[in-house]
Amino acid sequence: MSGELSFVAGAPVLENLHRFILFTLATSLGWDIGRAITTAVLVLITGRAVLRSLRRAARPAAFEEPVTFAATPPPE
Question: Among 3, 14, 24, 66, which is 20 to 30 Å from 74 by CA?
Fold first, then answer.
């Protein structure tokens, strides 16, 4: 005897696909939806700031003049 959610060897593909969909609904869909909502909210909240930082870091540093240091007099 096989359950409604288990794979049946030799059964047509559509029947096993239907069983897989039922299995997913019964076991992990609630968890996956919660994670998807959390991810979407975090992207909406932090996305603009993260992209701005990445764009700023992607610009190459271009120094027009080399940095020079002035000589300091020796201490007395």
Answer: 66
